[in-house]
Amino acid sequence: MKSRRNRGSKWGAEFQPLDLERVRIGVKRTELKRGVEYSVQTTSGARADDDKSWVCPNCHLGIAKGQSHTVAWDSVRGVDTRRHFHNACWKAFQGPLL
Ligand SMILES: [Zn+2]
Q1: Does residue 85 belong to any structural domain of this protein?
Q2: Which residue stretches of 12-64 are H helix?
Q3: Burial of 90 (0-12, 13-18, 19+ CB in 10 A)
Q4: Domain of 40?
Q5: Is 5 a member of any domain?
Q6: Distance of CA 94 from the midpoint of ligand 1 (Å)
Q7: Is residue 2 part of a domain?
Q8: How many angstroms from the chain centroid is the CA of residue 19?
Q9: 56 lies in a domain?
Q10: Spatial separation of the C-alpha atoms in residues 35 and 42, rounded to whole Å
Q11: Could you identify which of 15, 34, 37, 81 might form a hypothetical disulfide with 75, taking C-beta atoms 3.0 to 4.6 angstroms apart as the criterion?
């Protein structure tokens, strides 16, 4: 079910049970870029996947540990396509996600 924000019904009918993983990672939203729908989350970067380092596919620079950044993936192809972007890079990014 798509969540479209419905002004007027505050804590609306679409309340979902608390999902710990989702809370830890951040709030998920969807964005369209060139007709492709992406699922997008902003993360604090504080998640302790310590061995991981990410290279932003937009600028090809690393994302520092603890740096707030954006995780995005193709909604259709699924979470396996996810990439980590600098927040500004995600805004500039126009796809496609490889
Ligand atoms: Zn970047």
Answers
A1: yes
A2: 20-25
A3: buried
A4: 22-92
A5: no
A6: 13
A7: no
A8: 16
A9: yes
A10: 21
A11: 37
Q: 83: CA distance to ligand 1 center in Å?
A: 11
State the distance from the centre of ligand 1 to the C-alpha of 85, rounded, in angstroms: 5
pTM over cut 0.85: no
Ligand 1 centroid vs 66 CA: distance in angstroms? 15
- Quick one: CA dihedral 11, 2, 80, 53, positive or negative? negative
Number of domains the chain is built from: 1
Query: How far, in Å, is the centroid of ligand 1 from the Cα of 77?
Result: 22
For residue 72, the one-letter residue type is A
